[in-house]
Amino acid sequence: MSSRAEQKRAAPLRFAVVGAGFSGAVVARELAEAGHQVEVFESRDHVAGNCHTRRHESGVMVHVYGPHIFHTQHERVWDYVRRFGTFKPYRHRVRAMVGEKAYQMPMNLGLINAFFGTNFTPQEAEAFVAGRADASITDPKSFEEQGLRLVGRELYEAFFAGYTRKQWGVDPKELPASILARLPLRFTEDDSYFNHPYQGIPEHGYTPIVEAMLDHPGITVRLSTRMPRARLAEFDHAFWSGPIDAYFNFEHGRLAYRTLDFEPEVVDGDYQGCPVVNYCDADVPFTRITEHKHFAPWERHDKSVIYREYSRLCGETDTPYYPVRLVQEKAQLVEYVRLARDQHGVTFLGRLGTYRYLDMDVTIHEALRVADVAKESVSAGRPIPAFVTDPLG
């Protein structure tokens, strides 16, 4: 016969999940499938967070908060999302405007030849770029140093310097080198933006995927509902995917984010022939134009919906997109992480909860890990930790 403690550990628990983006939806689904009761609280009037999609009156599927392309190296993540909807094959392609000329991105053999007016072979192009790169920079500390070390002054100034100032609102000398380290440099004609083995876009958009995740008898979803921190004590445990500084009522100040403004326009036919065109020149006020029907190339539409995208510092009532994570913000984050680790009964996760820039697949991968740890902890009668992935790492 099992002990009373074992019976207690096996009893279903009541969990709160704050936020109905991918982080919250994955954790909620996993816990509900493990037999627990979950209430999901979402401050917006829809699920899916910044991945929210909807049909425009023109029929075009619009990525309401800007384009989201699903790509991953994690087979578990790829299999998981396809449980909840059909993903269509998609390869993301981007163009970049410098002056009046469009170039294929990411930086590859075609761009190098077009920019310099050459006809290099891959080996010649690699040697040419290496000759222009600043080899004296052996340990790049800033975005600018990384760019100069990677591609040299001409390509850096044309494609990265102005765009980066617009996107981040600061001089590239003030940004960490790690931001540019993510961008590929190729010496082939491959213009597919991502190289992960699994890539696609949901046939009917991201919102139905998240709705399907949350469609479980053990899950209750409460939209347009802000969950006060004090009420979380009503639950056995809470998972917080909202801003970590908001949880602590901004005790150490507000963490800085960049936000985006969109200027939509409906046009006839095809506007630019590809999903995304970056505008690299600093004197062009917007960063890029996205054309949403190209994110669903299996559909046909007579009309087209474009977004001109503008980046600025996030205000108190704005939607946060990209964590800034410069020196001041990192110091604040250390203080918030210290507070979080002193908490009992709450786990922080996701882009906002850990104040990290995360792609969708990484968000889902980490949420699955959070759910794994939570189930293991419940089974063993241990407290669920405040963080499963260290936000300071």
Notes on the protein architecture:
This protein is α/β, with parallel strands linked by helices and 393 residues long. It is built from 13 helices and 17 strands. α2 packs parallel to α9 (206-214), α2 packs parallel to α13 (360-380) and α6 (143-151) runs antiparallel to α7. The protein starts with a helix and ends in a 13-residue tail after the last helix. Residues 1-9 have low confidence and may be disordered.
What topology emerges from the helices and strands here?
Blueprint: H1 4-10, E1 14-18, H2 22-33, E2 37-41, E3 53-55, E4 61-63, E5 70-72, H3 75-81, E6 87-88, E7 94-98, E8 101-105, H4 109-116, H5 122-132, H6 143-151, H7 153-168, H8 178-181, E9 198-202, H9 206-214, E10 219-222, E11 237-240, H10 244-247, E12 257-268, E13 276-279, E14 288-291, E15 303-313, E16 322-323, H11 327-341, E17 346-348, H12 350-354, H13 360-380
Parallel strand pairs: 1-2, 1-11, 2-10, 7-13, 11-17
Antiparallel strand pairs: 3-4, 5-9, 6-9, 7-8, 12-15, 12-16, 13-14, 14-15
Helix pairs in contact: 2-9, 2-13, 6-7
Indicate the mean pLDDT: 95
- What's the story with the biggest beta sheet? 7 strands, mixed
Q: Please give the order of strands in the largest beta sheet.
A: 8-7-13-14-15-12-16
* Broad structural category: alpha/beta
- The H/E string reads HEHEEEEHEEEHHHHHEHEEHEEEEEHEHH
Please state roughly what percent of the residues sit in beta strands, choosing from under 5%, 5-15%, 15-25%, 25-35%, 35-45% or over 45%. Answer: 15-25%
Q: How far is the N terminus from the C terminus?
A: 44 Å
Taking all Cα atoms into account, the compactness measure Rg is 23 Å
Total beta strands? 17
Portion of residues in helices? Answer: 25-40%
Low-pLDDT runs: 1-9
Q: What does the overall shape look like?
A: globular
The number of helical elements comes to 13
